[in-house]
Specification:
This protein has 140 residues and is an alpha+beta fold. 53% of the residues lie in helices and 20% in strands. Strands 4-3-2-1-5 form a five-stranded antiparallel sheet, with helices on one face. The longest helix is centred in the N-terminal third of the chain and has 32 residues, at 6-37.
């Protein structure tokens, strides 16, 4: 293959990649716009900053989210990232939380008797050495 065909082939390949990337981006933007326009009262959503809330009121370019009982905040529609499932298996969440706690927490009060014995022995040896040093300094 000659180098005279290389530049046009690279140009066509680059143009094709650019076209497909723009198409993918345009599709994602359309889906996001569709989501934002379809929001209704009662929808559970997540914002772009990761805050979860329930839609309590919608306006043309903003919505109000209840993020906790009695706590309502106002957001631009563009800040809504996705609609999330409202039904979450509470038992599954509790089970997952307990597993993480069991694996991650280490109780420092659980020491073996041999650890305690060695600490007592070390403390006694240290006190004995300090006493001997003090006596040596007094007599010296």
């Amino acid at each position: 293959m000659s180098t005279e065909y290389l530049i046009p082939i690279l140009f066509v390949a680059f143009a094709a990649l650019l076209f497909f990337q723009m198409r993918k981006q345009r599709k994602a933007m359309n889906e996001q716009q569709k989501l934002q326009n379809s929001l209704t009262v009662g929808d559970r959503v997540m914002t772009t900053s990761g805050l979860f809330g329930t839609v309590v009121e919608t306006e043309d370019d903003s919505i109000e989210l209840e993020i906790a009982d009695g706590v309502v905040t106002t957001w631009l529609r563009q800040a809504i990232r996705e609609r999330v499932d409202t039904e979450v298996d509470e038992d599954e969440l509790d089970e997952d939380d307990n597993d993480e706690v069991d694996e991650d927490v280490v109780d420092s009060s659980e020491r073996t008797s041999s650890d305690e014995d060695s600490d007592v022995t070390e403390n006694a040896d240290t006190q004995k050495t300090e006493t001997q040093n003090a006596e040596t300094q007094k007599t010296g």
